[in-house]
Please model this.
Amino acid sequence: MTSTQDLTGTPDQDDLAYNVFAKACPSRGTLEHVTGRWGGLTLGALYEGSLRFNELRRRVDGVSEKMLSQTLHALERDGLVHREAQPTNPPRVDYELTPLGREVAERLLALIHCVEGAMDDVLASRTRYDETRGAL
Model:
């Protein structure tokens, strides 16, 4: 670890060219695409492999066609998802993660697994909170 890295081995904020905490920083938009409900779930689903639009829509339960389309466009524009259109009749379109998308999805899945593994504690905390707040 050098003086320009924090304890996780990532560069210190002062050494980065972008700062997501700055209002005008373009990284903020990408962070929103990645951490938004549909973006995170879409990246996680695509980590398993290439999927067609309707396969992806079934995998990401609850997403509308419109929201999935918007999400895929944003992730493709950010360079996280690759769209492959086959010149067949009917047209076949497959979506897969780019190398950058794969790296982001790995980190996101670690967070997802952490949250899933902690849900018993989270649910117990919610119950305690609701009981305490209801008594006020």
User: Anything to note?
Assistant: The mean pLDDT is 89. The CA atoms of residues 53 and 106 lie 21 Å apart. The helical segments are 27-35, 37-46, 53-59, 65-77, 99-117, 119-135. Strands lie at 51-52, 81-86, 92-97.
